[in-house]
Amino acid sequence: MSRSIAYIQARNLNVTFRPPRRAPVRALAHFDIDVAQGEFLSIVGPSGCGKSTFLSVLLGLLRPDSGELTVAGRRIRGPGADRAMVFQEFGLLPWRTVQGNVELGLELKRLPSERRRSISRRLIEMVGLSGFDGHYPHELSGGMKQRVGLARALATDPQVLLMDEPFAALDAQTRDIMQSELLRIWQQARKTVLFVTHQIEEAVYLSDRVMVMTKRPGFAKKVFDIDLARPRDYEMRVTPHFNEIKLAIWHTLRDEITGVA
Question: Is residue 99 exposed (0-12), middle (13-18) or buried (19+ Cβ within 10 Å)?
Fold first, then answer.
């Protein structure tokens, strides 16, 4: 994928939290990254290094102290319809059905009910939940809830999809299935995805590139190109080249965690 033109561009971002009666915490320092349109970029790094902070800045929920962040050449000044987030905690409204949760953003946009239904039906089918339109969150498994969250994020047709450890709460088998499902959905929707994870194998399997962040204050220590063919399957994870990439990322991350120069 060509990255000659950046769709998302961060330049010299600095974020410091200043809690009352406590010392300031510098979360991001001189953070730079370029992301191409349609790219799948995963972000890994030590706990507390600012991964989620960067997503919050990109979503428009947090303003940096300094620096510039743009999407399609427009500076981020707050939340916008061009960006959506999928969270780890699902965040579904328990009193709404699957269809009702998926249509939430469409209602806020005041789309007619027929149009909302058409969009939600297509997305519920895309995420593999056909027949569950009328079910409530308590009737769904963890993997199904995360599919609903993904469909809800896609419903407003954002250009950028932000995913903050979306599979962390799932068991290992469901997580593997959801990774493959996410790749299938990404191939169809072709959104620009920024995916935060603690699992290196997950990052390699999903991504075009993987960015390793430094410990706090965080910035990009190294970015790895993932030169694995697409479409990808589970068996790819046991190939020598896959494991070479995984090991190289692990060494970079380990050195950052342990403080090795």
Answer: buried
